[in-house]
Amino acid sequence: MTTHENGQTDQAGQTERPVALTATANNKGVDAAVAAARRVIASLLHAGDGSSAEMARIAEQLNAVADHLDQHAPAVEERMVDMWKGEGVTRHDPVTGPENAIAPPLPLAGRDDGSIEGVVVLGMPYQGPPGCVHGGVSALLLDHTLGVANHWAGVSGMTAELTLRYHRPTPLFEPLTVTGRQVSVDGRKIRTTGTISAGGKVCVSAEGLFIAKHLPRPR
Ligand SMILES: CCCCC/C=C\C/C=C\C/C=C\C/C=C/CCCC(=O)SCCNC(=O)CCNC(=O)[C@H](O)C(C)(C)COP(=O)(O)OP(=O)(O)OC[C@H]1O[C@@H](n2cnc3c(N)ncnc32)[C@H](O)[C@@H]1OP(=O)(O)O
């Protein structure tokens, strides 16, 4: 029986199901508050200045929430140590993290064939051209996905080069499939590819060069 480095195996040595590479959101604590904050970001953009909502009062309420959080937060240095403890990546990263309100979030899972994949629907906060995803947002999703694909393959590093090809506009409000796969490791040089597809068509493809290097975690 073969066991993938990060996988689960059954009697036949096959991975039973894709392995989550993303922290699961709790429906309580900071995760629930972050989910609400994501809603607020999207709702503000949806409402706009022409909305009949009382925006001055909303700004006051949101500032009161931020003041309350700041008053009860640990020192930045302490929080940095805390967030990098243990596995220490997937709860706070800006693509998948349930503690990070700017993360869409994109859930990623690893497959036995070495690839990773996730599906996400992006709304107005991620808009570039009319009705379409901002190219920089696609770059963010792919940089991270390629990084996690390297982790899944067992050799990871820092992005040295990321080359993107935008084949066709990437739609908002539709399921997007994001994939990544490590292609080769040559000394410290790691090459990784990935795609964002909609309706079975590739919208963006990426090629990354990563260099095996890890910065020390805050302590
Ligand atoms: C629920 C359970 C979950 C379980 C956990 C599961 C999954 C999650 C886990 C992990 C996932 C975590 C994160 C993944 C996501 C992250 C992805 C985001 C990644 C980033 O967001 S990361 C930030 C952006 N990134 C930078 O901030 C890099 C800044 N930069 C540098 O820090 C240096 O620049 C560096 C390190 C790149 C190299 O520096 P260096 O000193 O170590 O190495 P050096 O320069 O000697 O280069 C060695 C050889 O690479 C060649 N080389 C270097 N650079 C090149 C280039 N650009 N083009 C072509 N070749 C290049 C040289 O030419 C030489 O080649 P040669 O050996 O042939 O001469």
TrEMBL record:
Segments forming domain RHA1-ro05818 N-terminal helical: 21-78
Location(s), subcellular: Cell projection, Ruffle membrane; Cytoplasm; Membrane
Membrane topology: Peripheral membrane protein
Keyword Cell membrane in record: yes
GO cellular component term of the entry, any: membrane
Catalytic activity, reaction form: tetradecanoyl-CoA + H2O = tetradecanoate + CoA + H(+); octanoyl-CoA + H2O = octanoate + CoA + H(+); (9Z)-octadecenoyl-CoA + H2O = (9Z)-octadecenoate + CoA + H(+); decanoyl-CoA + H2O = decanoate + CoA + H(+)
Primary localization: membrane
Superkingdom in the source lineage: Bacteria
Record's keyword annotation contains Lipid metabolism: yes
One function term, GO molecular function aspect: hydrolase activity
InterPro entries: HotDog_dom_sf (IPR029069), RHA1_ro05818_N (IPR048654), THEM4/THEM5_acyl-CoA_thioest (IPR052365), Thioestr_dom (IPR006683)
CDD domains: PaaI_thioesterase
Residue intervals of the Thioesterase domain: 131-199
Keyword line: Apoptosis, Cell membrane, Cell projection, Cytoplasm, Fatty acid metabolism, Hydrolase, Lipid metabolism, Membrane, Transit peptide
Region of interest called Disordered, as start-end residue ranges on this chain: 90-109
Pfam family, one: 4HBT
GO BP terms, alphabetized: fatty acid metabolic process
EC number: 3.1.2.2
Family as reported in the entry's similarity comment: Belongs to the THEM4/THEM5 thioesterase family.
Protein name listed in UniProt: Acyl-coenzyme A thioesterase THEM4
